[in-house]
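Hi, here's the filled form for the chain we discussed.

Project: internal
Contact: R.S.
Residues: 185
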Amino acid sequence: MSLPKNYYSLRLELTRIEPLIWRRLLVPTTITLPKLHRAIQGAMGWTNSHLHQFHIDAEQYGEPDPYGGMTLIDEKGVKLSSVLAGNIREFVYEYDFGDDWLHRVVVENVQDANPAWKGSLCVAGQRACPPEDVGGIPGYGEFVNAIADPKHEQHIDMLRWVGGAFDPEGFDINFANLRIRRLKG
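And the returned structure, exactly as it came back:
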């Protein structure tokens, strides 16, 4: 007996940054947008410390702004499969409106479930995600330059700020999946 095709394979790419930082996620087709947000947070290495929104087919979904500053469709209870109806195969996930991290999300395919899978899973990726509050793309560039150059005037301060070490080329798939499991709820 074959299981139904009920997992999306999503490729997430952090836009406007070189070299490319990306992840591949397998998520249930029934996943809600808040749970997808948490899966992306875990896979990318973000800490869920800032606001986010999804830009899907000319609509913006996210948590309602209690102050009325942004008009978003409330993402609560919205399933990814319902907003991808009509053959939509690409959308944008935006995180941290100050640093403005834009993620291009491509639906690569819909595939069969595996009995060993439960929930979302990161199956591939490359390069470390920029640290929270680094200052967006320009700040990340300055940060990487500072930690790479022991003679840079901010070298020690940046290493302290990031916790002692940071490898821009590093990506640990097991740690990404551990974060995804921890951010469920």
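Let me know if anything looks off before we file it.
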